[in-house]
TrEMBL record:
<dbReference type="InterPro" id="IPR012280">
    <property type="entry name" value="Semialdhyde_DH_dimer_dom"/>
</dbReference>
<dbReference type="InterPro" id="IPR000534">
    <property type="entry name" value="Semialdehyde_DH_NAD-bd"/>
</dbReference>
<dbReference type="GO" id="GO:0009086">
    <property type="term" value="P:methionine biosynthetic process"/>
</dbReference>
<dbReference type="InterPro" id="IPR051823">
    <property type="entry name" value="ASADH-related"/>
</dbReference>
<feature type="active site" description="Acyl-thioester intermediate">
    <location>
        <position position="154"/>
    </location>
</feature>
<comment type="similarity">
    <text>Belongs to the aspartate-semialdehyde dehydrogenase family.</text>
</comment>
<keyword id="KW-0521">NADP</keyword>
<feature type="domain" description="Semialdehyde dehydrogenase NAD-binding">
    <location>
        <begin position="10"/>
        <end position="135"/>
    </location>
</feature>
<protein>
    <recommendedName>
        <fullName>malonyl CoA reductase (malonate semialdehyde-forming)</fullName>
        <ecNumber>1.2.1.75</ecNumber>
    </recommendedName>
</protein>
<dbReference type="GO" id="GO:0046983">
    <property type="term" value="F:protein dimerization activity"/>
</dbReference>
<dbReference type="InterPro" id="IPR036291">
    <property type="entry name" value="NAD(P)-bd_dom_sf"/>
</dbReference>
<feature type="active site" description="Proton acceptor">
    <location>
        <position position="249"/>
    </location>
</feature>
<dbReference type="Pfam" id="PF01118">
    <property type="entry name" value="Semialdhyde_dh"/>
</dbReference>
<dbReference type="GO" id="GO:0004073">
    <property type="term" value="F:aspartate-semialdehyde dehydrogenase activity"/>
</dbReference>
<dbReference type="GO" id="GO:0051287">
    <property type="term" value="F:NAD binding"/>
</dbReference>
<dbReference type="Pfam" id="PF02774">
    <property type="entry name" value="Semialdhyde_dhC"/>
</dbReference>
<dbReference type="GO" id="GO:0050661">
    <property type="term" value="F:NADP binding"/>
</dbReference>
Length: 360
């Protein structure tokens, strides 16, 4: 029997010269079947990508990509493109992504503008892959052939991925999260040096609130092994900060429970956590979404942000401690521009391919 060949998907990357855009370029240049075919920008149209891009990630710009011309963000120029990756800024992203979806393009967005549209999935593939079916409702309601799928805020992913196996398996009462976030989360050129050097910058009530809101949605869409408490009874709180590291968001969580809960059992649940991407052996799926460390001085941002295979796709969790019989503390680290952005977007595209929403 003749073996069917997998189709190569041609991807357009919007904002391709930005900090998340370059991670898309890096990841897709090595991808087995999704390739960067169209690099879109705004102020650099007509120039070679390698000439105008600040490559603030590992490795070098691949030569075949360095010579590609940056092109306008115009769906009419993308006849041979199969899907769109959109890490555009808040506010600018919404109408652009809608126009692409109207024109029949699948859009995978890292931007916040559509995260709480009721017919748009906000996806971490290991947590809520079943929500892809919202695409069918979206197409019917909006009468377009394309669609939009979003990924959550990087900070929310750093909180939700370790919390998911806890909420799935234990009677979790609440979680109190403190984040220490890197500069790349603010994009380039980012925060003025005099605001961040020799300082810890609180991100404020609005950022705290949107982090909590997104974590609530993700946990509400998990498939659980315990039936209580209802997500509406769970108390979540986040206090968010920016510091002068380049990549990697560090988060400290205190999780409370309605009954006595062993820290060792919590560690075991996180260590064993897997989802549909692991079952399907998707190319960007790490064998373990959560890597546990028993060292009392890890995770560390410098050493652990690239953890996993592919690098940067696993969250590292350590310093798990029994605070009291009903409280467990742990520390986590997520690579914010890889797992928390571009890598998560590519993993979502792979899942959509397997589910039949992208050509296979």
């Amino acid at each position: 029997m003749e073996r069917l060949m997998r189709r190569v998907l041609k991807a357009a990357i919007l904002g391709a010269t930005g900090l998340v855009g370059i991670e898309y370029v890096r990841i897709l240049s090595q991808h087995p079947y999704i390739k960067p075919a169209y690099l879109a920008g705004k102020g650099s149209v007509g120039k070679p990508y390698g000439e105008i891009t600040r490559w603030q990630t590992v490795g070098q710009i691949p030569k075949e990509i360095a010579d590609m011309e940056v092109k306008p963000t115009d769906p009419k120029m993308m006849d041979d493109v199969d899907l769109i990756f959109s890490p555009l800024p808040a506010g600018a992203a919404g109408p652009v992504e809608e126009e692409f979806a109207k024109q029949g393009f699948p859009v995978i967005s890292n931007s916040p503008d559509h995260r709480f549209d009721p017919d748009v999935p906000m996806m971490v593939p290991e947590i809520n892959s079943h929500t892809v079916t919202l695409i069918d409702e979206q197409r019917k309601r909006r009468d377009w052939k394309g669609f939009i799928v979003t990924t959550p805020l990087c900070t929310a992913q750093g909180a939700a991925i370790p919390l998911a196996p806890i909420f799935m398996n234990f009677k979790m009462e609440g979680a109190f999260i403190t984040t220490i976030q890197s500069l790349s989360g603010a994009g380039y050129p980012g925060i003025p040096s005099l605001d961040i050097v020799d300082n810890i910058l609180p991100l404020g009530d609005a950022y705290d609130a949107k982090t909590v809101k997104e974590v609530y949605r993700l946990l509400s869409e998990t498939k659980r092994n315990v039936q209580e408490p209802d997500i509406k009874e769970v108390s979540l709180s986040a206090t968010t900060h920016r510091i002068a590291t380049i990549q990697g968001h560090y988060e400290v969580a205190y999780v409370t429970f309605k009954e006595e809960t062993s820290a060792e059992k919590v560690k075991e649940a996180m260590d064993q956590f897997k989802g549909e991407p692991q079952e399907l052996k998707l190319p960007s799926a790490p064998e373990k979404p959560i890597l546990m460390t028993n060292k009392d001085n890890r995770p560390q941002v410098f050493f652990d942000r690239w953890a996993g295979d592919p690098p940067g796709m696993s969250i590292v969790v350590g310093r798990v401690n029994q605070v009291n019989k009903k409280t467990v503390r742990y520390v986590s680290l997520i690579h914010n521009t890889v797992r928390g952005a571009a890598g998560g977007g590519v993993l979502t595209a792979e899942l959509l391919t397997e589910k039949g929403y992208l050509p296979k």
